[in-house]
Design a protein that fits this description.
The chain has 9 helices and 16 strands. The protein is α+β, with helices and mostly antiparallel strands and 399 residues long. Strands 6, 7, 8, 9, 10, 11, 12, 13, 14, 15 and 16 form an 11-stranded mixed beta sheet that branches.
Length: 399
């Protein structure tokens, strides 16, 4: 637990100190690299860390340890890719694939000398070692991660260099905020996008496949004075002023009883249906009111399209209505059936085109007859078309 707390505190501090590291070390490292290898490589600082394990990703490294004094050391870790990039440029491309475990004495000398050269230039930024004896632990060092690549733009190979320095020898400057840069008054009219949910209900598959235009689906667990807003995966409960112009008498939405005469046990299975508005814009000022529990005026909702979804799949769309003290949706489009009907004529046209091409000589003679047969088959097909249960994925608890 103590390590977790120390890590958390260190991370927060490193955010504020990053600018000091960025302005202090990259120039030294780049100039040292240019002087040692000529301007053949570009070095870029990409991160500072208290934990090196998240940076290495199980990569093999060539490690050089340089002693500062009896208590403190500096480490230079060059990944296998980094050494391959350097050696290929300086000593020439090898005929065999580079293997860090088989590095030659000459190759190791080149890398070690470069690390020594870096150390001589970096140590000038270190503070004198403290006189009092400090107990060492795993979190008293800072790891600087650099990316190295060839200067030529066409070469995309990159490697990493990790420079580890004792934290006690560094005196970074942290950015301190003297006062708030912004106030709440700066943002009340700034807009963000929200998803609005009015409720959920259980529906049998039989009822779903018999939904028709003008049907009204009432969400029994909804509340006309409350909706759920989802903004960037965070959900709010919002109090709203219901528009009573949407109210329709309960008897007008009834229709036929779809729950009777279910033909089989599969049709009687119940799935969850939800109602979701198209995304609406809401201001940060309105969001503040939501968190304070005040009533929010979302008048744009009432002219917005509502989509009915089953297991996340859209099946119908319509307009918001109020039945007694519950929200409902008056369906104006069945999405599943429309998709099927759009595919059917296209398939029929393709089929007819192939037939007319193969019987070109007989087309004029049989055109009326073919048209009549097509109409009959289309009518029969539409009558016999069955509900496609594969549109929905049912959880075990529904069966």
């Amino acid at each position: 637990m103590k390590e977790d707390i120390q890590n958390s505190i260190s991370t927060d501090r490193l955010y504020k100190e990053y600018d000091w590291y960025q302005s202090t070390f990259p120039e030294i490292v780049q100039n040292s690299c240019n002087e040692f290898f000529d301007p053949n490589f570009r070095m870029e600082l990409i991160g500072i860390s208290k934990n090196i394990n998240c940076l290495l990703e199980n990569e093999s490294c060539f490690v050089t340890k340089i002693k500062i004094d009896k208590d403190y050391d500096m480490f230079f870790r060059l990944t296998s890719k980094t050494i391959d990039i350097i050696l290929s440029k300086i000593l020439g491309q090898s005929k065999t694939k580079f293997n860090i475990n088989k590095i030659s004495e000459l190759e190791a000398k080149v890398i070690t000398s470069f690390n020594d050269y870096l150390f001589e230039h970096l140590k000038g930024k270190l503070q004198p070692p403290p006189q009092n004896e400090l107990k060492r632990n795993n979190f008293d060092v800072i790891h600087l991660t650099f990316i190295i690549k060839e200067a030529e733009e066409y070469n995309n190979k990159t490697g990493k260099i990790f420079i580890t320095m004792p934290e006690a020898l560094l005196k970074p400057e942290a950015i301190v905020s003297n006062n708030d840069k912004f106030s709440e008054e700066d943002f009340p009219n700034t807009e963000t996008v929200a998803k609005v949910f009015i409720g959920k209900t259980k529906f049998s598959l039989f009822d779903i496949k018999n939904l028709e235009k003008e049907d009204v689906v009432v969400f029994e667990n909804s509340n006309i004075e409350n909706v759920q807003l989802s903004i960037k995966e965070k959900t709010f409960s919002a109090n709203i002023n219901p528009n009573m112009d949407l109210l329709i008498p309960e008897e007008e939405h009834g229709g036929e009883d779809m729950s009777s005469n279910t033909p089989n046990i599969w049709d009687s299975l119940e799935v969850e249906m939800s109602a979701e508005f198209d995304a609406v814009k809401i201001t940060l000022g309105e969001l503040k009111n939501i968190e304070n529990g005040l009533v929010v005026d979302l008048t744009s909702l009432y002219d917005n399209n509502v989509t009915l979804k089953v297991e996340g799949n859209p099946i119908a769309s319509g307009n918001l209505v109020i039945v007694n003290d519950r929200y409902g949706v008056k369906i104006n489009q069945i999405l599943t059936n429309d998709a099927k009907q759009e595919k059917a004529p296209a398939a029929a046209e393709t089929e007819n085109a192939e037939e007319s091409y193969s019987n070109e000589g007989e087309y004029e003679e049989n055109s009326e007859e073919n048209e009549e047969e097509y109409n009959e088959s289309s009518e029969e097909g539409s009558e016999d078309e069955e509900f496609d249960y594969s549109d929905f994925e049912l959880e075990d608890e529904n069966i």
